[in-house]
Amino acid sequence: MGEGSPVQASVIQSQLQMVELVYSIRIRNIDEVVTWILATAHNDHEAYGMTAAINTWVATRGASGDVEIPRKIFDEISRLIDKKREYLH
Fold it and tell me: Which listed residue, 15, 33, 71, 84, has the most CB atoms within 10 A of its CB?
């Protein structure tokens, strides 16, 4: 585990629910996305970065209604977090 607090599923879920509220969408695979983040983020800062990136993806896509976060989008976000982690260490 990296620096920062342990990642909590409830916090990630709440952040993704806020994305749903702000954009009037429903993330169909929200539980799966939470699982992906829990499996990938080393700390709460990385988890927040991932949910922020998902927020940006939703915003720039102009999503509406039911939305599914594609695994390939999450994998790209995860790759960028890995690069940041390597840069900082």
Answer: 33
Residue 80: name the closest of 46, 55, 39, 57 by CA.
46
pLDDT tens-place string over residues 45-60: 999 999 999 999 999 9
Cβ atoms within 10 Å of 1's Cβ, excluding its own? 9
SS3 state at 1 = coil
| 53 exposure class (CB count in 10 Å sphere: 0-12, 13-18, 19+) | middle
User: Is the backbone of residue 62 left (phi > 0), alpha (psi -120 to 50) or beta?
Assistant: left
Q: Is 32 exposed, middle or buried (0-12, 13-18, 19+ CB in 10 A)?
A: middle
